[in-house]
Amino acid sequence: MFWKFDLNNTSHIDQLLDREGVTLRELMEEEDVLQECKAQNRKLLLFLSKDHCMQELVTLITEEPPADLEEKTRFKFPNIACELLTSDVALINDKLGGDESLLEKLYHFLEQEPPLNPLLASFFSKTIGNLIARKTDQVISFLRKKHNFISLVLNHIDASAMMDLLLRLISCVEPALLRMEVLNWLNEERLIQRLTELMHTGRDEERQSNASQTLCDIIRLSRDQANQLSEVTEPDPLLTVLESQENVSELLKNMFEGERTEASVVNGTQVLLTLLESRRSGHAWMSYTVNSSILRAIEPHLKDFQQLLLNPPTRSAILTTVGVLEQPLGSARLHVARLVASLLQTCDLSICQEICRLNTMDLLLDLFFKYTWNNFLHLQVELCVASILNHSAHSDHQNPAHLNILCCFSMFVVCLFLLLADCSFSTFISRAEGGRRRGNMGHLTRIANTVVQNLEKGLAHSQINDLIKELPEDCRGRWEGFVGETLRETNRRNTVDLVSTHNLHSSSEDDDMESPFPNDLSIQQAFSDYQIQQMTANFVDQFGFNDEEFSEHDENINAAFDRIAEINFNIDANAAAFEACCKERIQQFDDCEEEEDIWDEKEINYATQIKSRSRYSWTASFSETEVSSSSAWGGSPQQEGEGPQDTNWASFTEFQPFSR
To answer: From start to end residue, where is composition biased (Low complexity) (predicted)?
Structure first.
């Protein structure tokens, strides 16, 4: 069989171009204009590169379209114009980058009064960014002649597109020598100092936030490129300024001068945290050395951060899933906790002395127990404890200063020791606060294990044990009871292999079929992992599956679901085991007899229609009617005045496919 091909097929765009008087707008109305442009349609590219067309394309991305146009089509042509100008076609790049009148027209966009239209700002930034990467010499030379370029960009820093433009200048210039010239130019323009000035408490929050993010990105980009570009021996001038004691001190001054707002504290602390990063993940782990000048600048202001923990910026009460929180922790105090954790990880002697003197850790520990549901805070406190024990282990016991810090940290560990000694097993495992397990229990368990391990074999164990021996005998007795009973039982429950919860299937020929229901210990482990552990590379293996079962199989498209078919869910055969498991689970939440029984049959009102996701072939449709909870569970609705009735097991045959 032969197919007929029309090898002389001409696109509609070519037909338009053959017509006299065709306009740019007519071409932009065509759906395939971008595709034809990127496919190097010579006739189209020659038309687009004409002076009047290039002028019109630049006008579209830099001037507001008429306000009377329909909103959904108002930015249609500006968007297409931007895509054409950034289509990475050499003819268009050469025309745009080599024509100074077009560059002047682009630059004029920055000379407008703020605020810029955010969509047009993104078109402008994308176009200039493409030229920086493709026509580097011409564009950099043009921008360096504009003495107010940096001032205009910072004047519009409230638009995130201006952040992207600055980062393009730092990261997209090649070769390395030209990049260093650009960095020196930006440094001469005092880019870092001017961004730091925008962090002042009196500045607009949007400007503060974007300036903070820009500084953080510059730090990371500069460090990454310093590691990757081995041929560059000259230090990055922007990073040098950022890490200088003078600039960090100026940043801290701007954060705390005048009224201390949450925005200024959070944005400023984010820059400090980025400066203190010693490791960062990406395509590969990278390690950095924290400059001591950063620590020397932070040290005098630790008392200011301490004051923030005591008197944070005012926040109104918020409603949470566990009730009304009259005084939320707030982002400011959380960022202070993150900063303290990062500072302790540096193991800097002077910093640790000041933290000890201020009793900062005691205050963080108070917040740990006050805000029992804030896991972000709990993680930072756990990191602080780990750093303290690590610092104590590596201290120079012959150095008086190190010895003082060791003594201070040891006293903190003893205080923590006493708190843990008073914890009962019910506090760790079972109900607290209305039948719910407290949200900080997972982290508290890990902290307790860390303390125990260091008491037993840590390098500082002798110092801490000497202090513990001086405690009253009843305190030491409570600690031994805690470690031998409470903590041991908690760890036993938390270390049961999760795989046991998924051994649900067994051979149908096996007469001695095991119960398919997960036991109590597995449930506790699953809940613990859900609370505090991250998903790791062996996550799939822990759940009894392997990578092969998730790959495509040409011979059997259902191969990934074979395991599901093996599950034998015989309800009748396992009724006793299931009922026993349910009763054991329910008892843990029976706080008082007056509480409502969640298992009582009751009528459920569905007042809305619920539609399934499109990936499923069935649609659940509930009309505004009362649906009896016993309709599919083998029992009848309980009549008024009647006693409790057995609900029996579910009758799955009564479930019907959902209607569309």
So the answer is: 627-645
Range in 384-398, 463-477, 483-497 with the lowest mean pLDDT: 384-398
For 534-586, the pLDDT digits (tens) are 444 444 444 444 444 444 444 444 444 444 444 454 545 456 666 666 665 55
**DSSP string across 313-334:** PP---EEETTEEESS--HHHHH
CB 416 within 8 A of CB 451: yes
Indicate the burial class of 378 (C-beta count within 10 angstroms; 0-12, 13-18, 19 or more). buried
Both tokens assigned to 633: 């569970």
Taking each continuous run of H as one helix and of E as one strand, the counts in the chain are 35, 6
> Residue 602 corresponds to which tokens in the numbers above?
């009751």
Q: Dump the DSSP string for 298-310.
A: HGGGHHHHHHHHH
Is the bond leading into 237 cis (omega within 30 degrees of zero)? no
Query: Which pairing describes strands 626-627 and 323-325: parallel, antiparallel, or unpaired?
Result: unpaired
The tokens 């810029």 sit on which residue? Answer: 116
How does residue 436 score in pLDDT terms, banded at 50, 70 and 90? low
Residues 6 or more apart whose CB falls under 8 angstroms from that of 228 comprise: none
**Closest C-alpha to 301, from 355, 372, 378, 369:** 355
Rounded Cα distance between 600 and 434, Å, is: 19
Instruction: State the chain's maximal CA–CA distance in angstroms.
Output: 102
Residue 502 confidence (pLDDT): 43
Give the DSSP H/E element, type plus range, for residue 341: helix 330-345
Mention every residue, 6+ apart, whose C-beta is less than 8 A from residue 91.
45, 46, 49
Q: Quick one: the chain helix, strand, coil %, rounded to 5?
A: 60, 5, 35
Angle, helices 136-145/118-134, rounded to nearest 10 degrees: 120
**128 Cβ contact partners less than 8 Å away, ≥ 6 residues apart:** 106, 139, 165, 168
Angstrom CA distances, 338 to 272, 356, 384, 386, 413, stand at 10, 17, 9, 14, 20
215-243: burial string, b at 16+ Cβ within 10 Å, e else: bbbbbbbbbbbeeeeeeeeeebbbbebbb
DSSP state of 588: T
CA atoms within 13 A on the CB side of 287: 1
pLDDT tens across 82-128, in order? 999 999 999 999 999 999 999 999 999 999 999 999 999 999 999 99
pLDDT at position 344 is: 92
Q: Tell me the C-alpha distance between 540 and 411, whole Å.
A: 43
